[in-house]
Amino acid sequence: MAEAHQAVGFRTSLTSDGAEVELSAPVLQEIYLSGLRSWKRHLSRFWNDFLTGVFPASPLSWLFLFSAIQLAWFLQLDPSLGLMEKIKELLPDWGGQHHGLRGVLAAALFASCLWGTLIFTLHVALRLLLSYHGWLLEPHGAMSSPTKTWLALVRIFSGRHPMLFSYQRSLPRQPVPSVQDTVRKYLESVRPVLSDEDFDWTAVLAQEFLRLQASLLQWYLRLKSWWASNYVSDWWEEFVYLRSRNPLMVNSNYYMMDFLYVTPTPLQAARAGNAVHALLLYRHRLNRQEIPPTLLMGMRPLCSAQYEKIFNTTRIPGVQKDYIRHLHDSQHVAVFHRGRFFRVGTHSRNSLLSPRALEQQFQRILDDPSPACPHEEHLAALTAAPRGTWAQVRRSLKTQAAEALEAVEGAAFFVSLDAEPAGLTREDPAASLDAYAHALLAGRGHDRWFDKSFTLIVFSNGKLGLSVEHSWADCPISGHMWEFTLATECFQLGYSTDGHCKGHPDPTLPRPQRLQWDLPDQDRGQFCLTYESAMTRLFLEGRTETVRSCTREACNFVRAMEDKEKTDPQCLALFRVAVDKHQALLKAAMSGQGVDRHLFALYVVSRFLHLQSPFLTQVHSEQWQLSTSQIPVQQMHLFDVHNYPDYVSSGGGFGPADDHGYGVSYIFMGDDMITFHISSKKSSTKTDSHRLGQHIEDALLDVASLFQAGQHFKRRFRGSGKEDSRHRCGFLSRQTGASKTSMTSTYF
C-alpha cells in the first residue's frame, strides 16, 4: 500500500527541471503550461502530417477548387454531372429548411472527393516518374533526351517547398532483383579471392541453389515486396541489429569527430551549452518538418523515414531480441560526469533554455564535488556488455532504480562530460588522434550509454564528438544532424570574447537533478571480400546495400601497380577500368540491383521455411575482413572551406566487422581533403591500423603519380625490394599540391 501512503502524504512535486516546489499556484501554472505545450505540439504535428499527406497539393488548392465549383453552380453549370444533386438527396433536409446550406455542403463534399482523387493521381504519377533510374546509369556530364524529359516532368509534379516527409507517399518500392542476376554478380565478386577449385565448387552450389530453392524463395520475396514498404529493410534492422547478441561497443556503434584543427572555445561547459542548444534546434526543425528533404540533382528525393528516430530514442535490450523505444518528446538530457548521472531540463516554462543557461547547468555539474555512489561509476558498462547479459541485469535495475533508469532512457539524448582532453595536438599528432578516435568509439567502456540513439561527448578542453547507436538509422542521417550542429553552434550561436556562450546566466534556474541508483553488487598479403556501403534511399524506407568493391578489375589494377614491368599508361588504363566497374556496381546498388540485401532476404525466408540451402549458408558465413564506408558531406553551404579551411568536419569511424579485419571510414571535405579513420582489434596478430594507414597514404600517392599533376611522385614497387618501411602512427598528413590526407588509427 505504499502508493496510497505516498498519495495521502503528498506535498511536493517536480517541475520539468527536477526542482521541488510547493503544490500551489506555481505548480498549477506549470501543469497548465505543460498541457498547453503538449497540445501545441500535437496540433503542429497534425497540421504538418496533413500538409505532408496532400503534397504536392496544398489546402489552398482545395479552396480554389471549391470556389470554382460554387461559381459554376451560381452560373447554373454542373461540373459534377449530377453527382452534387445526388449528394444533396443523401443529406438530411432539416425539415425543408437550410436548402442553401445543403447545396454548400454538397459542393464541399464533391470538391473534397475530387481533390482527394487528384492528389492520389499526383502521387501515383510522381511514383511512376521516380521509378525511372536511367539518369543514374548515364555517364557523368551527359544527359539523354529521356532523362531531360523525365526531369521536366518531375519538376512539374513535385510541387514547391516540400517538407521533410512530403515525398514519402510518392517514393517507389525497392524492387526485388532477378535471382539469376544476383547469383551471377555474387560469383563475379568472389572470383578474385577464390582459387579455381574453390570457385568451381561455389559455382556448383550456386547452380544447385538456382535449380532447387531459388524460385520458391524469390516468390516469397516478391509477395513481401508487394505488401510491405520495403522487402528487406525491416528484416535488416531486426536480424542484423536487434537480434544480434554481441556488445554494441565497437561491433555496432560508430563515432563522429569535431572540427579537426579548430576548437571554438576551450571551456567545456560553454561548448556543451551551445552544442546541446544547437541539437535541440535541429530537433525543433525536425518536429516541424522544416528540414528540406535530400534531393539528388536537386530533383530526385531520398527517403526521409530514418529521421524520425534521431531524438528521444533508446535501444532496449532483450534476452533474445532488442527493441527500439521512441518517445514523441523529451524535455531533458541525461548527463554523465566522473561516475555520476544527472538529469538536466532543457526547457523553461515558455521555451528552450538559452545556450548560456545550459552552460550554467553543465558548469554546476562540473563544479559538483560529490563522489559517485558504489557501483554507479561503472554502471554504464552494462550497455557495452553482451545484449543478453545486459537484458537480464536491466530487469533487476528497472525494479530497484526505475526512476533513474527512466531519466536516462527517456532523455532526448545522452551527454558525457569527459574529464580528459582530446583532439589533434601538434606535439604528437599520431598518438593524439588515436586517443581521440578511441575515446569517441569506446571511451573507458563505462562512460557512454551505448543504448541511446547518440551520445554527445564533450572533452575537458572543449573538443566535441558523437557516439551513435546504429540500429535506428544509417550514418548519413546522423551526419546531416552533426553538420547542422557544428555549423550552428560555431557560426550562428557563437561565443563571447571570453569563451562563454552569449547571453547571461539565470540564477533562478534550479540545479540539475542528481540521479539516485539503488544498485545491488554486480560483477563487472592478400585480396579479401570488401564491404563498401551504399544507400538505397531512392526507395521508400530504403537503407543500405553492399558494394562488393574487390572486383577482378580492381585486382588487376593492384597487380599492375606492383609489377615494375608495367608502364604508367598501362596502369592508368587499368585504373580507369576498375573505376568504371566500381561506379557500375555502386549505381546498381543504389538502384536496387545489388547483391547482398537480396541474398540476405532470401536467407531469412529460407530459415522461416526451414529450407537448407548450402549456397545461402555459405554466403551468410562469409567474413568481411575489410569494411569501408563514406560519411557524405550533405550541407556544404554551411561551411566556407575556401575562406575558413580549418573549419572542416573530420568525419567519424566504426569498429571492424571481423576479429582480424579493419574498419575504414572516410570523408571528403571540399575538393582537396580526405580523412580516413582506421580501426582494428588489439587482440589480432594479423592487423595493424597504423601500418594500413601508411599503406593507404602510399597508395594514394602512387595513384597520383599516374596523372600529370602527380608526376613528381615516384611509384613504389613492393616486389622490387624498395618498399617504404616507415610505420608512422595515427595522423598522417602529406601535401599533394593543394590536397591533404589525414588519418586516425585505432586499436581495441
From TrEMBL:
One of its GO terms (biological process) is fatty acid beta-oxidation. Residues 175-522, 523-697 form the Choline/carnitine acyltransferase domain. The chain crosses the membrane at residues 50-75, 104-126. It comes from the Eukaryota. GO terms for cellular component: membrane. Residues 733-748 have a biased composition (Polar residues). InterPro entries: Carn_acyl_trans (IPR000542), CAT-like_dom_sf (IPR023213), Cho/carn_acyl_trans (IPR039551), Cho/carn_acyl_trans_2 (IPR042231), CPT_N (IPR032476). One of its GO terms (molecular function) is acyltransferase activity. It is a multi-pass membrane protein. It is found in: Membrane. Residues 717-748 are annotated as: Disordered. Residues 1-47 form the Carnitine O-palmitoyltransferase N-terminal domain. Signal peptide: none annotated. The keyword Transmembrane applies. Belongs to the carnitine/choline acetyltransferase family. This is Carnitine palmitoyltransferase 1C. It comes from Macaca mulatta.
